[in-house]
Design a protein that fits this description.
CATH architecture of one domain: 3-Layer(aba) Sandwich
CATH class of one domain: Alpha Beta
Number of strands: 14
Strand content: 15-25%
Order of helices and strands: HEHEEHEHEHEHEHEHEHEHHEHEEHEHH
Distance between the termini: 58 Å
Shape: globular
Structural class: alpha/beta
């Protein structure tokens, strides 16, 4: 029965994939190991069907490949198949960089090693690095139908002595697949999951008013991810939700017999929304809630301090997490530069980017999107990288709240506000 329960949790993206959880809300489990260790075959074993290309030729997997399933304890999971850690040449070096990025932003790791080969130095080096990182980790020992090589057995025994699980898997017969899924399910207890966007802000029965502009930048036929997630989180917490466009707000707000617990708006209409509601009405934005949801709101608030010392001619990197068509009044390329030029300096040099520029310096500033299409781990890794380089960073919602004179109002309803604001001194 236990085997069947685990098998029934497998869901592979198909025609209805658009109805599934987005990758940004899926835990990322990265599968890593030497070339031809059996990583892609292991993915097929986990999914119980052929979802990854398998070949005896080393280096079959080049770029990271993502496959989704539901896993007990985890919920939606994205398994990431990576290039071998012993990849060679200039292309191999670039592939290893991508693997390293995926490892840094993962929720958990599956280390794949072949039973019939002695441990390689690259394996021991990476294993020690992953152990030091502290993320949930399981070792999958492939070629489980063969005797375990002596040195490999000693290495695995030393890992087991540290409390690290390993599972023997035969990818040909798929024996061990169910045991590996059980081991992964057990690791969920050690994983760090993102809080909901409304965590700590609302109670059962609260009324929330969401302001959702439907303009040229809005996707056709659907809401954007932060709006969808916020509505779902509110419903999960048994709250009542009213959704209006900005031009309907004035009348809708005055039609309520009791004020909403919280008004949440798209940051781009902060000014209009603030003008249409009571001055003491709690007000924030989807972007600010997502900065908090991703776990790094404090550093983003502190990043606003750099605006007062920003030098004319300096560079502003407006950083996005996803690709999309930019309209005539795009927030990244038009609205933020326009406000920055009016309130900070008209001589700033703007670049809209999706990756960290190699020549970025502490004299620059990054204004980041809400990060709704990134996992919390990925956003944390990006912000930690910027912090290590001494580069100030804030986000769209906080910058637009500051530009419209809505700080600290836009964050003062947060439970962590007293400490947050005292440290920032914006």
């Amino acid at each position: 029965m236990e085997e069947t329960a685990h098998v029934n949790t497998l869901r592979d993206p198909g025609p209805s994939a658009g109805l599934q959880s987005p990758l940004s809300e899926s835990a990322s489990i990265v599968v890593v190991g030497l070339r031809n260790a059996g990583k892609s075959s292991l993915i097929n074993t986990l999914f119980e069907k052929e979802v990854s290309i398998v070949s005896p030729v080393p280096g079959t997997t080049t770029d990271p490949v993502t496959r989704k399933m539901e896993l007990p304890g985890w919920g939606p999971v994205a398994f990431v198949d990576t290039a071998g850690i012993d990849d060679e040449g200039e292309l191999g070096r670039k592939r290893l960089e991508k693997t390293g990025n995926r490892l840094a932003t993962a929720s958990a790791h599956v280390f794949v090693t072949a039973a019939n080969r002695p441990p390689e130095p690259a394996e021991a080096e990476l294993a020690n690095k992953l152990l030091a990182g502290g993320k949930p980790l399981v070792f999958a020992v492939t070629h489980g139908d063969l005797p375990v090589q002596g040195q490999k057995q000693a290495w695995l025994d030393s890992l087991a002595a540290k409390g690290l699980p390993f599972v023997l898997v035969d990818n040909n017969s798929r024996n061990g697949g169910a045991e590996l899924r059980r081991a992964l399910a057990a690791l969920a207890q050690k994983a760090v999951f993102e809080a909901g966007p409304l965590d700590g802000l609302v109670n059962e029965g609260d009324h929330l008013l969401l302001v959702v502009p439907i303009d040229l930048a809005a996707p056709r036929g659907r809401l954007i991810q932060p709006q969808v997630e916020t509505i779902r989180d509110a419903l999960d917490r048994d709250c009542r939700v009213t959704v209006v466009k900005e031009r309907e707000l004035y009348e809708a707000y005055r039609s309520f017999t009791e004020r909403p617990k919280l008004v949440i708006t798209d940051s781009q209409v902060f000014s209009k929304v603030a003008a249409d509601i009571d001055d003491d009405q709690p007000l924030t934005s989807f972007s600010i809630l997502f900065a908090r949801k991703k776990g790094e709101l404090a550093s983003l608030v502190q990043g606003l301090r750099s605006l007062s010392s920003f030098k004319p001619g300096g560079r502003v990197f407006v950083m996005e997490a996803c690709s999309h068509h930019r309209g005539a009044d795009d927030i990244a390329s038009v609205k933020i530069p326009r406000l920055f030029g009016r309130l900070v300096t008209p001589n700033a040099r703007f670049q809209t980017v999706r990756q960290l520029p190699e020549d970025i310096t502490p004299d620059d500033i990054v204004i980041h999107c809400a990060g709704c299409m990134m996992t919390g781990q990925a956003m944390k890794h990006r912000l930690e990288t910027l912090s290590a380089l001494g580069i100030p960073v804030t986000n769209y919602g906080l910058f637009l709240a500051w530009a419209n004179g809505l700080l600290p109002r836009a964050i003062e309803m947060l439970p962590e506000f007293p400490v947050l604001w005292d440290r920032s001194k914006v």
